[in-house]
Design a protein that fits this description.
The protein is mainly α. It has 2 domains: 298 residues, no CATH class; 28 residues, no CATH class. Helix content is 74%, strand content 0%. The protein is built from 13 helices and no strands. Helix 3 crosses helix 9 and helix 9 packs antiparallel against helix 10. It holds the Pfam family Mg_trans_NIPA.
Length: 350
Amino acid sequence: MASAATQTPPTSWREGMSSDNIKGLVLALSSSFFIGASFIIKKKGLKKAAASGIRAGVGGYSYLYEPLWWVGMITMIVGEIANFAAYAFAPAILVTPLGALSIIISAALAHVILREKLHIFGILGCVLCVVGSVTIVLHAPQEREIESVSEVWDLAMEPAFLLYAALVITAAFILIFYFIPQYGQTHIMVYIGVCSLVGSLSVMSVKALGIALKLTFSGMNQLIYPQTWAFTLVVITCILTQMNYLNKALDTFNTAVVSPIYYVMFTSLTILASVIMFKDWDRQSPTQVVTEMCGFVTILSGTFLLHKTKDMVDGLSTSLSMRHSNSKHSEEDGQIDVEGIPLRRQESLR
């Protein structure tokens, strides 16, 4: 009987998580609150800067002189520091999906503060994103035991990850030098694509740097290794690139749409990079992997719903006003409107 009891699997998700994973979970949750709020504060700053200078969306940098934008930037930095610490304790598959909470916060604040209305299907899209994220979190693997930053460097130098990094850098350069000049102002995926591609590399470097600092604070100095400083240089370069193109996306497109799409692309590419570099799925059963994939499908469904219905609020309001006008004229002419709500032309939804 005692033997059978010792073989009983954990009865709750907390019993199946290590203390490091729980620390990473708490840090990631707090990070999402700060980052979600920072989107709205920065957007307000960008709007104020655009009123007196050149908009960021067309290449201007007047927002650098706007105090409100810096408040948003500081808020985001606080969130990123918490996120940075989370990656030092938990795997990317656990930490990254929790960014879904920042979607809900930024969408709610955008609705209240920026008056950027979110349709009911947009709300459903946010819910789907969160459900998919929770599914992934509950089946996340334990953190890999790493004893030196040199070990992380060896993982980064393996052929599979080098191939991934080369593809990411090539795709980012193509987007920056070919697609952004032509489609940056009309296609939301161009700016967000650069942020997400570069972001997946920055997270791997952030995780390596976080591990190095954690080991250093525990008594094993990692600052003497050149690999630590190489990862630091990659982090700085990637974050500056992300900040630049995320500002352009926020200034050009609706915040309630930028946040979830950026989240899904960034999360998907980051987890892919983590699976390749840290081999997270090697420590999981096929059932866990399949469940995580189902979580991805749920997140992608929510994002697709958000993207396809982003103009529906305006469409419905236009249709309702047209119906009211038509009904009024019909009543005046003694006629009955039997068509209902008129359909907008497909071109107006694009």
